[in-house]
Amino acid sequence: MISSLKITVLVENTAGRRGLLGEHGLSFLIEADNSRILFDTGQGMTLIHNGDILGVSLNNLDAIAFLWHELKSIDCRDCRVGTIFEIESIGK
Q: Taking the mean position of all CA atoms in its chain, how far away is CA 87?
């Protein structure tokens, strides 16, 4: 059972706050108890920028889950990732 859960939207079509950038795609940082999972990366052009504006570190991630079949990449040389896996999209 999860005792604490926090989901931060990092990438989305619209930018709901000054300084944030919107782009087609989604990215969420899911923090559950002591686990940090990055769910997808959007197109990768605004992820790090929006994370910086929101004060969200992409270091010390436990996993990155990619929504689509193709491999995506992000320019995050300091990220420490324990696991990378793919989730097949439903209805594609």
A: 14
Render pLDDT for 13-37 as a digit per residue (tens, 0 to 9): 888 788 999 998 889 999 999 999 9
Grouping H, G, I as helix, E, B as strand and the rest as coil, residue 39 is strand
Cβ neighbours for 44, distance < 8 A, ≥ 6 positions apart:
72, 73, 74, 75
Pairwise CA distance, residues 84 & 64, whole Å: 5
Which residues lie across from 81 on neighbouring strands? 61
In the chain, what are the domain boundaries? 5-86
Rounded Cα–Cα distance for residues 28 and 15 (Å)? 14
